[in-house]
Amino acid sequence: MERSGLLIILSSPSGAGKSTLARRLMAWDPSLRFSVSATTRKPRPGEVEGEHYYFRDKEQFNAMVGAGDMLEHAEVFGNLYGTPRGPVAEAMNAGRDTLFDVDWQGGQQIRASVLGAHVVSIFVLPPSLAELERRLVSRQQDTAEVIAARMQKSRDEISHWAEYDYVIVNEDLDESTESLKTILTAERARRARQVGLGPFVRRLMEEQH
Amino acid sequence: MERSGLLIILSSPSGAGKSTLARRLMAWDPSLRFSVSATTRKPRPGEVEGEHYYFRDKEQFNAMVGAGDMLEHAEVFGNLYGTPRGPVAEAMNAGRDTLFDVDWQGGQQIRASVLGAHVVSIFVLPPSLAELERRLVSRQQDTAEVIAARMQKSRDEISHWAEYDYVIVNEDLDESTESLKTILTAERARRARQVGLGPFVRRLMEEQH
């Protein structure tokens, strides 16, 4: 049955397992499209245009914002980041879902956009904040100061849990992956997404006339 | 995680496989409660009060309607039928789901009731009307006239498909049963139903204070 694509928003505090879950979801369904952001920051070595980012200068970026071509955008450390609408709408019309790895601000903006009716939003919670801190420490990437700042950012992020359609407490990666798959399968089956149902019922009713 | 119970509305034209699907769902999850209707018609041999129906006289029935104790009610062939609110609300508060086998009118009334926010509604479509008629004929229960009347009723019922959250085209009973399970599992996981999430996040945030 033909259906319209979904905009799947996955948010969580850093370290709650969101990236791993996103990767597993993409492996489960290769038709999923991972949303690529546009940015005004310079490409780093190895970064590929259209794969890691759409690299744009400030003028181009602001022109897209002005034309309503960004689903959401924000400034982070002096650089602009945003989600171009075109590729998302294109995937949607082709019945393909797009996965967004965004924070609560990005989530709010996408929900408030013209494509907001197609959003399914999922928030991933850690089982505990101590566990979250343990994971950040064990990465051995950050100083104690950076970790403290990340934990504060995590608290801010977690405070927005109630804005999401689904909340998953990520105690076990396998269980959480199964939950994500179930949510996606059911959301895809919703009547409002099955754009093929109208024509199907019309044919059904005309059968015996 | 503690959650509030759902009101699961299952509707379909007669012969589309709804009763079989309901039975399979109850076998899959014995905690599901099948909604028992109240009626003013006389019990038939073997019918048990509270299991097949709540048998009430007209005065008792109308008193319940007057007191707002019926989620929905209708008159069919001179008898009154309705869904008492008490047992549904009780199951809901205990985190148990109630399954309703009702037509589109019953579905509309339950959605419009005070418990409407807890409804998940699913419409089961036959793959074709010819198939539906074939199933009715093969039962060998009805005359051609009765079958023609049932088919007209089926068309009326089908015309309300777009009022439901989910639509399942029942081509294969096993597949349709899996779809139902997936829908139920996902709907139970919705943030708004997980009444235990609020306290959980409060504990999470207080952890390090």
TrEMBL record, chains A, B:
One Gene Ontology MF term: GMP kinase activity
Uppermost EC category: transferase
Localization per Swiss-Prot or TrEMBL: Cytoplasm
Main location: cytoplasm
SMART domains the record matches: GuKc
Binding site for ATP: S12, P13, S14, G15, A16, G17, K18, S19
CDD domains per the UniProt record, alphabetical: GMPK
EC number(s) from the headed UniProt entry: 2.7.4.8
Keywords, comma-separated and alphabetical: ATP-binding, Cytoplasm, Kinase, Nucleotide-binding, Transferase
Pfam families the record matches: Guanylate_kin
One GO location term (cellular component): cytosol
Keyword Chaperone: no
Domain Guanylate kinase-like: 5-185
UniProt cross-references to InterPro entries, sorted A to Z: GK/Ca_channel_bsu, Guanylate_kin-like_dom, Guanylate_kinase, Guanylate_kinase_CS, P-loop_NTPase
Domain of life: Bacteria
Family per record: Belongs to the guanylate kinase family.
Function: Essential for recycling GMP and indirectly, cGMP.
HAMAP family for the chain: Guanylate_kinase (MF_00328)
Name this polypeptide is given: Guanylate kinase
